[in-house]
């Protein structure tokens, strides 16, 4: 099992935190996105989508962060980061999708439409699609609305989807970290997000991730 990885980027961050929570030892191959190594022929041969992370397992390629996490959850079932009963599983997925669509995609919209390196390739992968600078403002506004939602949610809950740490927390923390790339601090004037983030940063899985990228 090999993870093709660029740990500083948001989607690899999600998978790395998940791996750390599972206490899995997985071989990694570094793919330097800053040098567009993901678009080199040798990587496109393994993953034609041209994205990271991706996992190679028994000559199969598994792309997309949540697909990788689902696969790893099936390989090592504890801790159950996607939930342990039907209602819990549904609630975690409900919040996780909210985080991904309203948070991660919003920050990504603002970031990729504002950076010169992506002006001709605004979506991840080899396809050339032009950036739309006007979407930066919308992406930032959506990001702020997401953090307002998260603050209200964490006022009532210990974790994003309830009383247990889950994949929804990993995704939400990734949004918090990614938002700094567009100069938005999701903790500013949001005491519940700040307390939640500080709690997560004390987890060994998060400390190990920070050591990986330092």
What is the element layout, followed by pairings?
Elements: E1 2-5, H1 10-22, E2 27-30, H2 41-46, E3 54-57, E4 60-63, H3 65-75, H4 86-112, H5 135-156, H6 167-179, H7 191-201, H8 204-213
Parallel strand pairs: 1-2
Antiparallel strand pairs: 1-3, 3-4
Helix pairs in contact: 1-3, 1-6, 1-8, 4-5, 4-6, 5-7
Strand content: 5-15%
Q: Please bin the fraction of helical residues.
A: 40-55%
Nearest-angstrom radius of gyration?
A: 17 Å
Principal-axis shape equals globular
Strands of the widest sheet, in order across it, are 2-1-3-4
* Helix-strand sequence: EHEHEEHHHHHH
Major pleated sheet: 4 strands, mixed
Number of domains: 2
What CATH first level of the largest domain would be assigned? Mainly Alpha
**What is the CATH topology descriptor of the largest domain?**
Glutathione S-transferase Yfyf (Class Pi), Chain A, domain 2
The CATH architecture category of the largest domain equals: Up-down Bundle
Assembly level: single chain
Number of helices: 8
Category by helix and strand content = alpha+beta
Number of strands: 4
TL;DR of this structure?
With 214 residues, the chain is an alpha+beta fold. The chain has helices at residues 10-22, 41-46, 65-75, 86-112, 135-156, 167-179, 191-201, 204-213, and strands at residues 2-5, 27-30, 54-57, 60-63. A four-stranded mixed β-sheet has the order 2-1-3-4, with helices on one face.
